[in-house]
Amino acid sequence: MSSRWSKNQYVGDCQTCLCRITHQRSRPISQSEEDYSPNTGELCDSQMSSQLLSMLKSMRDDESLCDVTLCIGKSSIKYPAHKVVLAAASPYFRKMFSCGLKETQDGEVQFHDIQPETLLAVINFIYTGKIQIDETIVDGLLDAADLIQLPSLRNLCLWWLATNLTPSSCLGVYVLALLRLHLDLAESAKDYAIEHFREVSEGEEFLHLSPEYVAVFLDSPYLGCDDNGQLLKALVEWTNFDENRRTYLKTFLSRISLLEIVPQVLIEVIQHPVVLSNPEAGKILQDTLQTVLSKKFDSDSELELPTEVSVPVRCFYQQDVLFAIGGESQGQSLSNVECFMMGYDGWKCSIPRPSFNSEYSEMEIIPTMKQCRYYPAIAYDQYSLYVLGGQDCGFPLDIVERYDILENRWETLAPLPISVHGCGATIVSCKLYLVGGRSSKHERRVWAYDRKSDSWYESVPMKSHRVHVAVSGFNGELYAVGGIGGANENDESYMSSVEKFDPMTNAWTTLAPMHEERAFHSVAVVDCFIYAMGGCNGKMWLRAVEKFDTMCGQWSKVCNMSVPRSSFGTTVSNGRIYCCGGYDGTNFLNTVEKYNPRTDRWHCAHSMQIERYGLALAAMSIPLRSHISTPDYS
Question: Which is nearest to 133 in space by CA: 114, 155, 166?
């Protein structure tokens, strides 16, 4: 064998290793040995780690070199394992085995509140990184993951619960998630229950719901059921399930639009035993029936209820609305907002408003922000949209504004601790985070917002300084993707690196880098994938798109956008990724395209009214009295 190959000994998949040495040049045969400079780059065997795990599991199965036993209480059920493997995977075991605790000398660790099949599944997960989850084991796995401090297993359980919600399980998941402070899962379960409220209210779980949780759903401006009559009947059945709940009936009636219920349903409910045994509630319903019948047979009569009963406006439809906010156009920073939704023939500056006395929703102009800005950060939840920082006339801003889609108004919140632009923001575990950006330097600091006190406090900083970074939240964790920066505050490198923050462990973790270095780009989450789109790498504007699989931790390339885009807005609506405006290296854009992850294809959508660069984009659901179809709202 020539000395060229004898320099390196390859273990594992030799072909894989050789393919990774892309920068090594072949030496001409005539070249002297003295002139040849051997490859000094770092080589990688991509199979090594998986082979190591596989061998360790095989050794555990054979009870080879095992030095600890995990036991179920005082029973005879015992599972052998290796201390070093358990300690490497879990801070719980690491502290136990390194601090001279009793378990270190005894060689046994006892668990009293874990089922045998759950403990075995956890051990196999530590050795393989794989686990089978179903409804019979997920609760136990979640408890074990919290106890043994396995955040990756915890996140897999949370993701499984969030993606396997059903009308018969969502309320139980909602209550469980609240009790365990898994707030993102709680929000997902609540949103699912609201969207499928007709089926949920007919199920067994609804009857077992405590009054405070029933109030949460009755206070929602939108419920996915047929009408207020169905809501009233569900409430009566819930009250009838436990006689101690009868005191709540009168209070809860005030949260239903009783005047919208047809007489037949009112008569049926009035005759229900639980109403007959509750004189105050019965009188309210009798008065409502009389008013409804009077209106039906006397068009001149007014619809009035007893003074103690308010009339909320509840909607039984909702539609997604895209909001394009701020940015820069023709050299001017913007404060205005335009929106698009199904039923529109283009982008508008007005949105529909719920109306109690109208067949169709009324239209209302969207107010402008109080501050013009471009390059802001944006984050949003169900009915609130936050615009943070940004730039105006070349100066960074500390101004934060919140848009309330139900009230159609902006309000100013507590200013940021620093003036910053090119930052990212997201909401994780019901907490608003601001990440990175540029103040007087490239930032790696992270700020969190306390809604109760309307104040900001500093959270754990990123490992790298990042400006024009793309930020997203998924499964209770925060992802910071790409940007300009590096290890030092004045580094100007375009970055492909990615890091993740877990609020439960209060720590940042470095993830696999993107294929492309990117800044001025955008990210979006669909299912368990994070998509990184467009941007600039310092040499050219990009139309390349890649996605990160949060389950296996790897990036893969997908279909490119139709044109290069940087400094554009991105959001997700109905499972599609929308990219709006930006800059293609030559022109400022008002064009919009959307991506279908199922088909891996991009499609053109309605263009915005004006070119926008450095804008913010959001998709939110607005409750409506009826579907937007006709009339034309142009």
Answer: 155
